[in-house]
Amino acid sequence: FKSLLKLSKLKHLDLGRNQFDIRILRSLGALLTLKSLKLDYNLMEGHLYDIDFAVLYTLELLDMSYNVLNGIVPPSIRALSSLKSLVLEGNELNGSLPTQGTLPSCLYNLTSLQMLDLYENYFRGNISSYLIAGLTSLKHIDLGYNLFDGFSFNSFANLCKLEFLEFLVISNCSLNKLSNQIPTFLFHQHSLRLLDLSYSMLKGQFPAWLFENNTRLEYVTLNDNSLSGNFHLPLCLNFTYWMDVSNNQLNGQLQGNIGYMVPNILNLKLSNNTLSGSLPSSIGNMSLLSAFSVSFNNFFGEVPKELLAGCSKLMIMELSNNNFDGHLLSSDFNLTMLQALIINDNLFSGAMSNELSQWPYQSFLDVSNNNMSGKIPTWICNHTSFSSLLLGNNYFEGEIVCETAPIMNLDISHNLLLGSLPSWSSNDLQYLNLKENKYSGSIPEAFLNFSEIVTLDISDNKLSGIIPTAIGKLSSLRILLLRGNRLNGTIPTQLCQLTNISLMDLSRNFFSGTLPHCFQHIVSDETLPFGDIFSVHVGTLTYRDESVHDSERFERQSKYIEVNFVTKYGLRSYKGSILRYMSGLDFSCNNLTGAIPLKLGQLQGIHALNLSHNQFTSSIPNTFSNLTELESLDLSHNGLSGEIPPQLIKLTFLAVFSVAYNNLSGRTPDMKAQFGTFNASSYEGNPLLCVVLPLEKNCTNRYDSPPTPTQSLDASDEKWYKVDQAVFFISFSVTFIMFFLGVTTVLYINPHWRLQCFNLVEDCMYSCYFSVTITLRK
């Protein structure tokens, strides 16, 4: 490196993607002719305040993106009067002197600056009007993903002087705190090529004027705002090839000539709005279209044949969650470049054509929740490019005749398939869902020849016989669901070899005998490298312009694996990353006998345990007090005897507890912690059990006649401030019903609010759960 510093006439130096630290900046002063310096993706950590950039006064490009720089932008950077490009994205910079947290005032001197990229830092406050307006040579401004507080476009009053501005990225900047509209300074811009205002809480009508003023716009992302009105483009946009207005409140029908308005579009995303009507046939004129998404709208009717014939370069097409109908997957379907077709939750019907086997690049097909029928085509057994095939909730029938299954994710649940389970082998299959069909007979050992299987769900069929011992070879298995069949015999000890299991459900079968004593090791430990194993990659679309960030350059899509598991008295659905944290065992509704194994108390990471509706005897193991993560414990409808271990009050996460209908005796645990929340239904059906309820002073047998209450000597002793209970409950009920109907009506009228409300509740639930779990495990 020292010899490099002797190159006194060096003009361009690229040290990106190495492991240099911040000391490298102090050793470059000898390069007096340097014009371009790239130090992106290194290990530079710390602040820049004491770095003297004045010695590099000839610099025209300075790129220190994606390091760990923090603190302020140093005042010495103002000496770089020739600087044209300043790229500091992906760091932890947070302010300037004298006011911490705002954009650095030293930038005002950089009058030659054409590119200012401060994306993904920690800058706060408002933009100073004199700062940006003085940089009249700016072509590229990227301030996205900072911490601006009430980002004010009033301070951008002079931005009309930025007549060369081509790239503007101010995503995730809370633009609506002082203005609910698209910023008015854009009225004065006529040279924009890229505009990103996504995730900025913008409101108001869709800005058609934006396209009138900037006819050369190439890349427009207005997604995840609250824009409303019709999506109507005012004129032909020959240069636009990327447009994303998803997750807004746009409504009405698409204009009939939309295919002629953006003839060169590559990516058009209109999903998660309230658009309606049928798809215009003019979409077939978008001959370059690679990604098309209109999912989660109110479209109906058939997909126009012009789209299927004219958009021959389509790679990703999303039509899910609408009301489309017709025979989409017929022999006329000829999108041979397609990689991902997502048409679930519609009204499509008909059979799957054998022509689909000719798609050389097809990797993801989701036609679940439609009215598809016919037989599963045999070509799926030999299609080597498929990663996911989701056919659930349709009317497919017959048998699957395959020797191999070169698919990673196969879901044919909720159909009319019958016969024996297919005997195939696969080194690729990771997720197999055949639940709620009409499969019968025994489970063949050949069916379990899946070396990489992660999720196996064959629940709610008519399978009989025993569980094959070969199941112990599925070393990667994490979820095993066999409930609702006619399986019998004893539970094989080979299940104890599945040391990565997180969910196992053998309920509602005819298993007998004792529960194996080796299950203490089966629930997987949280330290195992789960990764993102419960989501399936759909497709990737690459954007060609290198000046756009990685977050905008790629469109990544994934679908989450979803399983159902009974916990807390209900069949609940779990999907995505939550499956990494959920663990449980369900052996309920069988004929299991003997004592509950003490070693089950060693499953410290388990969240749900259900042994109800069996014939277990003996006592409840004291070791259950070690199940510190347990949320649901159901031991009801057995023959358990003895006392309820008082140590169970240590289970601070326990939300559901039932020992009803056993032969328990003695006193129930003290009404402390979670046991203070359980009512009499948790203990009913135990005649010898002494139940202590929160409002009772003495432990009494609930089946004895209660003592006659003593009458008050004087009715006038009642306090004047006592509340009439009947009046209180009636008024409370009326108020609650009115409030509930009001909220329900609002959510019914406004589908966008309804979707946002459901997403918010789900996000809050998962966030709270993960935060509490991670905090407690530390």
From TrEMBL:
Q: Which residues cross the membrane?
A: 726-749
Name the UniProt key words of this record, in alphabetical order: Cell membrane, Glycoprotein, Leucine-rich repeat, Membrane, Receptor, Repeat, Signal, Transmembrane, Transmembrane helix
Source domain of life is: Eukaryota
Gene Ontology CC entries for this record = plasma membrane
Which InterPro entries does the record associate with it? Leu-rich_rpt (IPR001611), Leu-rich_rpt_typical-subtyp (IPR003591), LRR_dom_sf (IPR032675), RLP_Defense_Trigger (IPR051502)
Localization per Swiss-Prot or TrEMBL: Cell membrane
| Alphabetical list of SUPFAM superfamilies matching this protein | L domain-like (SSF52058)
Q: Does the keyword section mention Zinc?
A: no
Q: How does it sit in the membrane?
A: Single-pass type I membrane protein
List the Pfam families. LRR_1 (PF00560), LRR_8 (PF13855)
Q: Which PANTHER family match?
A: RECEPTOR-LIKE PROTEIN 14, RECEPTOR-LIKE PROTEIN 8-RELATED
What's the family? Belongs to the RLP family.
- What is the protein's name according to its record? Receptor-like protein 15
Q: Which organism is it from?
A: Quercus suber
Q: Lineage in the entry?
A: Eukaryota, Viridiplantae, Streptophyta, Embryophyta, Tracheophyta
